[in-house]
Amino acid sequence: MSMDVPGLREKIEGHLQRAEGRRIGVAVAEVLAGGACQENIKVELEGGERWVLRSDARSSLTGSLDRARELEVIRAAVAAGVRTPPPKWPATGLLREGATSYFLEWREGEAIGRRVVKSKELEAARGTLPAELARELAKIHGIRPADHPTLMDGAAAAAPSFDPAVASLARLRARMDSLEPSPSRELVHRWLADHLPAKEDAVLCHGDFRTGNFLVAPDGLSAILDWEFAHWGARAFDLAWICVRDWRFGQLALPVGGFAGREPFYAAYEAASGVHLDRARLHWWEVFGNLAWAVGSVQQAHRYISGAESDLELVAIGRRAAEMEFEALRLIEKGRI
Amino acid sequence: MQDPPEKEALLFAIARFLEEDVRPLVKDPRVNFRLLIATHLAATVASECRTGAAHEAAALARLRAIYTDAENVPYRTLEARLASDIRQGDLRQGALAGREDAVRAHVKATLLAKLAVNSPRFDTRTEIE
Hints:
The structure holds two protein chains of two kinds.
Chain A: H1 8-20, E1 26-32, E2 38-45, E3 50-56, H2 67-79, E4 87-92, E5 100-105, H3 113-118, H4 123-141, H5 154-158, H6 164-177, H7 183-194, E6 203-205, E7 214-217, E8 220-224, E9 231-233, H8 235-241, H9 262-273, H10 279-305, H11 312-317, H12 321-334
Chain B: H1 7-22, H2 29-66, H3 75-88, H4 100-118
Helix pairs in contact in B: 1-2, 2-3, 2-4
């Protein structure tokens, strides 16, 4: 289960020596519980400085960025003032041939979902989180494709004909076509296709903006992490994704990430961005988010079944697709968020 | 043909062993969490052993009520046909015209049967917020 990289410390020291032109000793290099598409290694330098080394995993999910492109997205976010650790010392082939990696400054905080929504120490933080997250999201959505034509093909996303909902639905369709046929997923997709929201301009979407992907400290939001699903899309995608039922970690009555009600979060976003949020549009994207996560969970199981990965959590998650499909149909029946 | 215990009893025994005897000894949080998953999976398969055949028979009966020309067609084939027909277009027209309610009822009943096995604690009420 744990990934042992032979000579890991020496490899990192060699890379830092080349990057900085002097010897930088590594005291600790320890593999952390990883994300889906990358491996994270905690690196402590001899002087006590701490970093996270993020490297491409053996296999990834469709639609996820590799570390090289993720690095460009993070740099754009840092330049926009988003609270996310700046990347440093990019490398290729450091941990595995062809795998890109980079270092992020270590940030303190809790990312484990069930602790973020329940831990007593974070009670005060949960009060300030909705407004803090809304402000960060407004900064992220202020990044426009026209200003970044070479970032993830921003030029195409800036074209007047580009429709984020149509593009997202087409990508989801392609992912569905790689899986077993499913009447429940088709029924949700049918509804989405029949109720497309009016076209809007594309913005930078974080793509996985939810409890579990930001660090929370007792005094509030510490850092936004995990940019691997960033894309040019609809701002409502991110705003709805954090409300997808599975990211409430059991706190169903608190739709925003399992720690807040909807209205304070939406109001804070509207104040920070100056953009009015259409609730019907958010409803469409929450249905979309649930279908996307149903598809994602089946794909996770396939990564195990195909032999590409060996983590028990991945194979187990496939059976949970029914939860997301049920939730999507529940939201459709309800007709609003 | 096998002697007792039944396969469900064996799976529950595995789940109980992992939960009561193994998990308290495992300090690594990553492995500890995966033991919880393994316990859940053993219980899931036990539940599927108990109810899977009845769930699939009920689903097949619903599908054959939708597709009256499909008397001997197996479950997977009919599910694929239904998925394809839903994809074609408006449920009120085309291949499923007049059977929209039966289709929706079948999809919902199938999801409830899956949840009963895989996610028995999932809240299926209409209002959750």
